[in-house]
Design brief:
Layout lengths: L2 H14 L18 E5 L5 E6 L5 E6 L5 E5 L19 E2 H4 L4 H15 L5 H14 L4 H10 L4 E4 L2 E6 L2 E6 L4 E10 L2 E4 L4 H12 L5 E3 L6 E5 L34 E2 H16 L4 E5 L2 E7 L53 E9 L5 E10 H14 L2 E5 L4 E5 L3 H9 L1 E3 L2 E3 L3 H17 L5 H10 L10 H11 L19 H23 L8 H4 L1 H6 L1 H22 L1 H22 L12 H15 L2 H9 L1
Parallel strand pairs: 2-9
Antiparallel strand pairs: 1-4, 2-3, 5-9, 6-7, 7-8, 9-10, 11-12, 12-13, 14-15, 15-16, 16-17, 18-19, 20-21
Length: about 625
């Protein structure tokens, strides 16, 4: 299925499920056809309250972030030019007031054209009350009296000077919208343009009854009014548009509009659905710049499951029910649970849709990626991803260790981020967007991690001194990425049977690191000093045999300090060191590879040995000495 058809079907499904124009608290609203919404900035939308007799009872600026919904035309939704078209009801004061006669006439024409076609008595009554009020010669002064106080302002055309406290201020009403509400319109209920659903439905019928050129829509297959004017998203950027460069279609089509025929109704459904997905926090994820990931399920369009492929490691997925983090509901203890932050609302038979869109310019939106697959296949792919790329990590929620999958952002930041102020940052926005797109495709399609990510991590894990504050992130992600490399499972526990050269050198590096670090911890417990093992980290991973001798010499003074401070620990460290050196001598002493650069196995040896060295208690170490 293509992207536009998927959006069309999603809107139709939402209509059947009663999700369109459903207004509940602060939830994102899937707009009805031929309507738009506008979020208040606190000073750009005035709502007036009228009585059923058409008298003004109150006027106020809509509170910041509050939404208003109102009808639009195909021309007014993306209006521009010297005298841009008017909306049919709610609009800027410069249209509704008579100061600018040309704009005002445009408004009256549009309003009256709809008003004359209204037959529903309640809708007619609502519009009549508004019409009577705005027909008054001084209706704007009445509104300003309520807003600022009768003696507290002066007006010159649509420029208002008023005082607020002791300060003089100015307001430009040409940029301010005016919307309407009627007190006690339905019983004791105040009805506004925003929440009057019957008004919205009436306007939809009015638009679809227009005598406009009709044809077969190439997306829906239905006969509809055809349009070449499509609403903008992310500002006024167009998802569907015709190129200004004729060479892109000449030779195949006479005109750019011949490429595809789209019905006005279909266009509205497609664009309003995408607008909803971009505004709904559960459905979209910002990828940097003007690029977004949107996703939804055929039976959970609002994504109430809070499914988010970009942040799986926020909630480490548990190994069993008893160690389950509390924020994951019991319904999600199956495959893919760490990617689902709420209660699972979708079925495994549902279809899953994901798309990446990018605002390529102020005028165009490009579709970078789209995928349609069954939810059951998606969950299998997520399971494969989790098994391939996970490593143990401590959870502060239940104070236990869980196998955890790095988020897509962690893969990207640890591979290409530069440490700055204690954080990993990727500076190039375009590069970041391209890489994230590759990660999304790999995850959804069940592919392997992009090779460039693992190659970058393989290089970064050798540069310990580049990551003073973020080393643990680098280490965790690298361990996760290579934990099942080439079908070979790496374990966090120490494997004494493992004779891999890189693994053994990694173990030895951990012993030398701990030998020096233990003396720092006792003499300066509040300070984290850089050990020689960390300083020589890169040299050691490139030339292990040669650098090993240097590090062993440098740790002799620290062994001397431990002999008196912690003999039990020193005994264990020397025992481990000698065991590792003996195995290296037995297998690699006369090998040409003895000083060859280490592969990724070294970090697993380093990690496992470090965990072992910190696991045993000091009392056990002392017992070993006494034996």
């Amino acid at each position: 299925m293509d992207f536009l058809t998927a959006l069309l079907q999603a809107y139709d499904t939402s209509t059947e499920q009663g999700l369109v124009d459903k207004q509940e608290g602060n939830n994102t609203i899937l707009l009805p056809l031929y309507h738009t919404n506008m979020k208040s900035r606190g000073n750009d939308i005035i709502q007036i309250y009228l009585t059923k007799q058409g008298k003004l009872s109150q006027a106020e600026f809509l509170p910041e972030k509050e939404m208003t919904i109102f009808p639009v035309t195909s021309d007014s939704i993306a209006r521009s030019g010297k005298n841009p078209p008017s909306h049919p009801l709610v609009d800027k004061i410069s249209y509704i007031a008579a100061e600018d006669k040309d704009l005002h006439q445009l408004y009256l024409n549009e309003f009256n054209r709809w008003y004359q076609e209204v037959t529903d008595t309640k809708v007619k009554e609502f519009l009549t009350i508004i019409k009577q009020f705005i027909s008054k010669e001084y209706f704007l002064d009445e509104i300003l009296d309520k807003l600022y106080g009768k003696e507290n302002y002066t007006r010159n055309q649509l420029e208002v000077h008023y005082t607020e406290g002791k300060k003089s201020k100015k307001a430009d009403l040409t940029k301010v919208f005016l919307t309407f509400a009627i007190n006690d319109f339905s019983g004791y209920q105040t009805i506004s343009v925003t929440n009057f659903v019957k008004l919205h439905e009436n306007y939809i019928r009015y638009v679809e009854a227009q005598d406009s050129p009709r044809g077969i829509c190439n997306i829906s297959g239905e006969e509809q009014q055809l349009t070449t004017k499509h609403r903008g998203l992310l500002g006024n950027a167009k998802l569907v548009s015709v190129s200004n460069n004729k060479e892109t279609y000449q030779g195949r089509f006479k005109n750019g509009t011949d490429i595809i025929q789209i019905g006005y109704k279909t266009s509205e459904k497609v664009h309003l659905m995408l607008k909803y997905l971009l505004e709904n926090q559960n459905s979209r994820r910002w990828l940097g710049g003007q690029q977004y990931l949107v996703n939804w399920f055929s039976d959970d369009i609002a994504n109430d499951s809070q499914f988010d492929i970009s942040v799986p490691s926020i909630v480490p997925f548990p190994t069993n029910q008893s160690t389950k983090p509390k924020v994951v509901s019991l319904a999600n203890k199956e495959v893919g649970r760490s990617f689902i932050l709420g209660e699972q609302k979708f079925s495994k038979d549902a279809n899953y849709y994901a798309a990446i869109i990018d605002k390529a310019s102020n005028g165009r939106i490009s579709l970078k990626f789209f995928r349609d697959l069954q939810a059951s296949q998606l969950l299998r792919n997520l399971q494969k991803w989790q098994i391939r790329y996970s490593w143990e990590r401590y959870s502060v929620q239940d104070e236990k260790i869980h196998p955890t999958t790095p988020s897509l952002w962690q893969f990207l930041q640890t591979a290409y981020g530069v440490e700055r102020n204690g954080r990993l940052e990727v500076d190039n926005d375009n590069f970041k967007k391209d890489q994230f797109q590759k990660l999304v495709v790999s995850l959804i399609d069940g592919r392997l991690l992009p090779a460039n990510i693992s190659t970058a991590l393989k290089a970064n894990i050798r540069k310990r001194m580049n990551y003073e504050k973020t080393w643990l992130q680098i280490q965790f992600t690298t361990l996760a990425v290579f934990s099942h490399k080439n079908g070979e499972e790496q374990l966090p526990v120490l494997d004494r049977e493992n004779t891999d050269r890189s693994y053994l050198y990694g173990r030895l590096l951990a012993v030398l690191d701990r030998t020096e670090g233990a003396t720092y911890n006792r003499s300066e417990p509040d300070k984290q000093r850089v050990t020689n093992a960390q300083k020589f980290w890169t040299s050691y991973t490139n030339h292990p045999a040669k650098t090993m001798q240097t590090l062993i010499e440098k740790t002799k003074s620290y062994e001397k300090a431990l002999r008196s401070a912690n003999p039990g620990l020193l005994f264990k460290l020397n025992k481990e060191k000698q065991e590792i050196i003996n195995i290296l001598n037995d297998h690699y002493l006369n090998s040409a590879d003895i000083n060859k650069a280490l592969d990724f196995h070294f970090i697993f040896g380093y990690y496992a040995e470090t965990q072992f060295l910190f696991t045993k208690t000091e009392s056990e170490e002392v017992e070993n000495v006494n034996e």
